[in-house]
Design a protein that fits this description.
Blueprint lengths: L1 E2 L16 E4 L5 H14 L2 E5 L5 H15 L3 H4 L9 E7 L4 E11 L2 H11 L3 H29 L9 H5 L6 E7 L24 E6 L5 E6 L5 E4 L5 E3 L7 E5 L1 H6 L9 E4 L7 E8 L27 H8 L36
Parallel strand pairs: 2-3
Antiparallel strand pairs: 1-2, 3-11, 4-5, 5-6, 6-13, 7-12, 8-11, 8-13, 9-10, 9-12
Helix pairs in contact: 1-5, 2-5, 4-5
Bound molecules: ligand L4NPZUNZ, 2-oxoglutaric acid (AKG) and fe (ii) ion.
C-alpha cells in the first residue's frame, strides 16, 4: 500500500495524513487483499490506482453530467424535484438538510435510467448509454474490491459481498453532485451553513455523514472539497485525482463484518473559487429483501454480534427517517439501551432511552 504525500492544511482541527492507496495491478493477490482490509479497518476509505476503468467511459459520463448541470435552472427542474430520485438543488433528503450543491440521483436499473433520461437530456439515448456503461464499469470495480475484502477477511464464501450488488434486484444508485464555485454564489442566499471551526472558507457542500450502502466507488474532477473524519476526531482533506477512484466502506458492510470494517464519515466543502466540483458517486447496495446480519465468521464468543439482523429495506427506511449527520447504525445496535420495545427495528423509543 502506498501512502500518498500530505496535502496543505488550513484549520487547526484539520490535519494532513496520507490516504491509503491501493494498486489493483499488484499481482500478489493475498497481499492486495490484506492491504484493502487494513485500509477498510483503519479508515474505511482508500484510493485505487490501476483500476482498469477505461478513460472514455469516465469522460463520456463526465461530459453528460457537465452538460446537464450547465442547463438553465428551469430545464434542470424538469428532472426534479428529487424525492429521492431525480434533480435536487440545495435540499438533501427529506428531513431539512441543505448544502451548497445540486445533484442528480438515479437508480441503476436499465429501465429507470431509460425513463429518467427523457427528462435529463436532449439526447436521452446518449445519456442512458453513458450512464449504463459507467455503472457497469464501477459495479465491476466494486465487485472486484468486495471479493478481495472477502479474501482478506478469510471468509469461506468469496462472493458473499459482491453477490448482493450483482443481484438484478440490487438497490444500487448513482449520484452526480455539482458544487458551484464561490464566484457563482447567489447573493440572495448569503446565509450559508458553515462548519463550526470559525473558518469562513468552509462552505458546506454535502454535510457530514456515512453512506448507508455496502460500498461507495467515486471519482471527481480535479477540484477538491472532500474530507474524511478520522476516529481520533480530525477532518482530513482528500486531494482530488480525476484519473483515479476512491472507495468508501458503507454502513451495511460495517454491519456484515460485525464492525470490523468501518463506514467512514465524510463531507464535501464547496470552497472552490472559480471551477465547480463535480463528483460521480456509485453506491453499491443489496436488494431490499436481503438480510444484513453479521457473517458467522465475524462473530465469536469474544466478538458477539453488535447489530440486530435487518433487511436492507428496513435500513433504508430508517435512513430516510434520520438527518444526514445521524449515526444510523446505532439504531440497530444490540444492547445499547434498555427499553420496552421488544426489539422492534428501528427501536421506536430511540429518543426516550432508559439508561
Ligand atoms: C438526509 C438524507 C439524505 C440521504 C437519506 C437521508 O435521510 C440520510 C442518508 C442520506 C444519503 C447519504 C449517502 C447518499 O448520498 C444517499 C443517496 C443515501 O443513500 O443516503 C443520501 C440520501 C439522499 O440524498 O437521498
Ligand atoms: O461529492 C463528494 O465528494 C461526496 C459526495 C457524497 O458524500 C455523497 O454523495 O454521498
Ligand atoms: Fe457520501
Amino acid at each position: 500500500m502506498v501512502v500518498s504525500s500530505p496535502s496543505p492544511i488550513r484549520s487547526k482541527k484539520i490535519m494532513a495524513i496520507g490516504i491509503p492507496t491501493i494498486d489493483l495491478s499488484n499481482y500478489n493477490r493475498s497481499k492486495l487483499s490484506e492491504q484493502i482490509v487494513e485500509a477498510c479497518e483503519e479508515y474505511g476509505f482508500f484510493k485505487v490506482v490501476n483500476h482498469g476503468i477505461p478513460k472514455e467511459v469516465v469522460e463520456k459520463m463526465e461530459t453528460q453530467g457537465s452538460e446537464f448541470f450547465a442547463k438553465p435552472t428551469m430545464e434542470k427542474q424538469r428532472a426534479g424535484p428529487a424525492c429521492p430520485f431525480g434533480y435536487g438543488c440545495k435540499n438533501i433528503g427529506c428531513k431539512g438538510d441543505t448544502g451548497e450543491l445540486e445533484y442528480l440521483l438515479i437508480q441503476t436499473n436499465r429501465q429507470s435510467i431509460s425513463e429518467r433520461s427523457n427528462d435529463i437530456s436532449n439526447d436521452p439515448t446518449k445519456f442512458s448509454c453513458a450512464v449504463n456503461d459507467y455503472i457497469e464499469a464501477v459495479k465491476e470495480l466494486a465487485c472486484e474490491i468486495l471479493d478481495l475484502v472477502a479474501e482478506g477477511l478469510w471468509v469461506s464464501d468469496k462472493s458473499v459481498f459482491s453477490r448482493f450488488i450483482r443481484d438484478v434486484q440490487s438497490d444500487s444508485i448513482l449520484r452526480l453532485n455539482h458544487y458551484p464555485p464561490v464566484k457563482d454564489w447567489d447573493p440572495a442566499t448569503k446565509q450559508h451553513p458553515f462548519t463550526n471551526n470559525n473558518n469562513n472558507d468552509n462552505r458546506i457542500g454535502f454535510g457530514e455523514h456515512s453512506d448507508p450502502q455496502i460500498l461507495t466507488i467515486f471519482r471527481s474532477n480535479n477540484v477538491g472539497g472532500l474530507q474524511i473524519f478520522l476516529r481520533d476526531g480530525l477532518w482530513v482533506p482528500v486531494a482530488p485525482d480525476a484519473n483515479q477512484f476512491f472507495v468508501m466502506v458503507g454502513d451495511a458492510l460495517q454491519a456484515l463484518t460485525n464492525g470490523r470494517l468501518v463506514s467512514v464519515r465524510h463531507r464535501a466543502l464547496a470552497n472552490s473559487v472559480v471551477k465547480p466540483r463535480m463528483s460521480m458517486v456509485y453506491f453499491g447496495a443489496p436488494p431490499l429483501n436481503a438480510w444484513m446480519s453479521p457473517l458467522p465468521e465475524m462473530v465469536s464468543p469474544e466478538k458477539p454480534s453488535l447489530y440486530k439482523p435487518f433487511t436492507w429495506g428496513e435500513y433504508k427506511k430508517a435512513a430516510y427517517t434520520t438527518r444526514l449527520g445521524d449515526s444510523r447504525l446505532d439504531l440497530f445496535k444490540i444492547n445499547n439501551h434498555r427499553c420496552k420495545c421488544n426489539d422492534q427495528i428501528p427501536c421506536p423509543c430511540f429518543d426516550n432511552l432508559v439508561q
